[in-house]
Design a protein that fits this description.
The complex is a heterodimer. By secondary structure, chain A is mostly helical. Chain A is 60% helix and 2% strand. Chain B contains 7 helices and 7 strands; from the N terminus they run ββαββαβααβαβαα. Classes of the chains: A mainly alpha, B alpha/beta. Chain B: Keywords: GTP-binding, Lipoprotein, Nucleotide-binding, Prenylation, Protein transport, Transport.
Chain lengths: 412, 218
């Protein structure tokens, strides 16, 4: 039995897509097939658990054929019109924990990603890299699935949207072609977007970027970027410095981009970043939040000149947060983001910091923590509650009994 | 909540207002009698306790500091509940924060849902009085707004200079205690409500008994 990986492969992307195609043929388009919840036919509990176990196993190993076989069985059973009930599969985390218990080497790798193990200064340590690590992997697969399920509209994940846009822009130098790109890019509605939890870039933003590019195309020069010209970047952490970021930041970019089909390209990405900054100047909605951002930057790290008005950290944070307010309009700037960007600003310049920040928000499940309603926050609180109930039951009992902890979401 | 043995009164004080008006510094000034130089934007909410003696009674004031940004208002819903009094802060040097007083008051009444909407104890606090460069929000305007919104009380403070911060919080707590007295009269009603809850629990118990029967059918 050959193992085909579901996740996109850098070396051979074509092989990956063919596999996906076969998968599409097997699963009917209308059938809701999720990674996390699959409808099972009501059988004995032991049998269901057996299926769930093999399914999670196959997800873990990303064995596409096993998955297909499993789904075949489900559809077959579904056609017999027996009573179906949702059955929750073990999450990937559970699988990892099991493997960890067995002492499997694979899990050790997952549990401690390289950048955490490094002895170098890592200010992002507070961000739960581990807990969200596998989610991003899963998400990537999920997004691929959704992409192929929806024939009518290709959903474009933000960064890829920019990349495709840029490719097309480079390919066709004719201006008329450039303006026609956005019509091809179809974007789902706002509420759908929330459900899918995919970062989808606004068509408006894309078209605006194009227009801006068209207007500027005659005079625009990549050397004009203020960031590229600032060659003497010196990192505060004192590790060997690059032009734009220090060694630590270099590793972070590698780490953040390891799931993507390409690596971090400073010149291209900083170009996009600068485009966004110029766009943000004329955007009224973004300008509103700029005031808030300026307000908050001054009181993020107050005892350092680096972040005072006029300091390099100040401008970096301002640029990153303004660009992000434009990049992700439904989310925008929320208090609390400033602390993350502050720690990034120590180690890299605006463009690198921005893409690292975007990657943190999108790939590491931080976005829900900032969206209206704070679903992610409640989820985290619930996770902590469950974890503490398991690990420190006595303290948990005390906290709950004295009503100092409330992990449930109170609805109005 | 009232502990009769220690004769302590427990009060929940909620401080709301626009982002950056100085809510955190005000509270910090009151609870720890210092001015915070390196204040940070509040995320979600924080609270601190202070024990004070007012009119011969020991009061434990739990002062809730809320985040000013609009996005965090949805979280605020759970913090507003059960508040005994509420202080709305605005920055006297920032006119937009004064104009937002309406929205803050309405949001509190909507989400906090206190029993007495008309008479709920609010205190309007004009902070940053030390920044006197002639363009501050005038006391007359602020008093006018308070008179138009149900005769609220208004006080001007400065967390930096420590002018009338103590006074403001004492006023707030006194107001909250007045409200507490009103609630104490209602105690018999509460007792009757307790009886009702017992009935409900019995119903739930009956439901639990019924459920297994349903399962047997399937």
């Amino acid at each position: 039995m050959s193992l085909h990986k579901l996740s996109p492969q850098r070396s051979n992307p074509d092989a990956c897509t063919t596999n996906l195609r076969t998968y599409k043929e097997v699963i009917p388009l209308n059938q809701s097939c999720n990674l996390s919840v699959v409808k099972f036919v009501k059988k004995s509990r032991a049998e269901n658990e057996k299926i769930a176990a093999t399914l999670t196993e196959s997800i873990y190993q990303k064995d596409i054929h096993a998955l297909i076989r499993m789904t075949d069985r489900f559809t077959e059973a579904g056609n017999n019109k027996k009573r179906v009930r949702p059955y929750k599969i073990k999450t990937l985390r559970d699988v990892y924990h099991e493997y960890a218990a067995k002492g499997c080497k694979r899990v050790k790798k997952i549990k401690s990603p390289k950048c955490i193990q490094d002895k170098t200064d890592f200010p992002l340590r507070k961000i739960p890299l581990f807990s969200t690590h596998h989610v991003s992997e899963k998400k990537l697969d999920k997004s691929q699935w959704i992409k192929m399920r929806n024939h009518r509209s290709p959903i474009i994940v933000s960064r890829n949207a920019f990349i495709t846009l840029q490719k097309r822009r480079n390919a066709s130098k004719n201006l008329t072609n450039i303006t026609s790109i956005p019509s091809k890019v179809k974007v789902c509605k706002d509420n759908q977007r929330e459900n899918l939890d995919l970062r989808v870039i606004n068509t408006n933003l894309l078209s605006k970027l194009n227009q801006h590019k068209c207007a500027d195309s005659t005079t625009f020069d990549s050397n004009k970027c203020s960031l590229v010209s600032s060659l003497n970047f010196k990192c505060i952490c004192g590790i060997g410095s690059n032009m734009h970021h220090c060694e630590a930041a270099q590793r972070w970019t590698e780490y953040a981009y390891r799931h993507h089909s390409r690596s971090f390209d400073f010149e291209k990405d900083s170009e996009i970043f600068n485009d966004m900054l110029t766009l943000a100047e004329s955007d009224s909605a973004v300008q509103e939040s700029v005031q808030q951002i300026k307000n908050d930057i001054c009181r993020t790290v107050t005892d350092e000149e680096f972040f005072c008005v006029g300091g390099r950290g100040y401008t970096t944070m301002l640029e990153v947060l303004t660009a992000f307010a434009l990049y992700d309009k439904p989310c925008g700037y929320v208090q609390g983001m400033n602390f993350i960007t502050a720690s990034l600003a120590y180690h890299c310049d605006s463009a690198t910091a921005f893409w690292l920040f975007a990657s943190l928000i999108e790939d590491y499940d931080l976005r829900k923590n900032y969206l209206q309603g704070f679903d992610g926050f409640y989820k985290c609180a619930k996770d902590i509650g469950e974890e503490s109930q398991e690990k420190i039951p006595k303290i948990f009992k005390f906290l709950v009994s004295s009503q100092k902890l409330n992990f449930r979401k109170t609805t109005a | 909540m009232e502990k009769k043995k220690n004769k302590k009164v427990f009060l929940k004080v909620v401080i709301i207002g626009d982002s950056g008006v100085g809510k955190t510094s005000l509270i910090h000034r009151y609870t720890s009698t210092r001015f915070l130089q390196d204040f940070k934007p509040t995320i979600g909410a924080e609270f601190s306790n202070k024990e004070v003696v007012i009119n011969g009674k020991t009061v434990v004031a739990q002062i809730w500091d809320t985040a000013g940004q609009e996005r965090y208002q949805s979280l605020g819903i759970s913090f507003y509940r059960g508040a005994d009094c509420c202080g709305i802060v605005f920055d006297r040097s920032d006119h937009s924060s004064f104009e937002n007083l309406d929205t803050w008051k309405n949001a509190f009444l909507k989400h906090g849902a206190p029993k007495e909407e008309g008479t709920f104890p609010f205190l309007v606090i004009g902070n940053k009085s030390d920044l006197d460069d002639g363009s501050l929000v005038k006391e007359r305007d602020a008093q006018q707004w308070c008179a138009d919104n149900g005769n609220l009380e208004y006080i001007e403070t400065s967390a930096k200079d420590n002018t009338s911060v103590e006074e403001a919080f004492t006023k707030l707590i006194e107001k909250g205690m007045e409200r507490e007295k009103v609630n104490l009269v209602e105690l018999p009603d509460r007792m009757s409500q307790k009886n009702k809850t017992v009935n409900l629990q019995r119903d739930v118990a009956k439901d639990v008994n019924r459920k297994p029967q349903k399962k047997k059918c399937c």
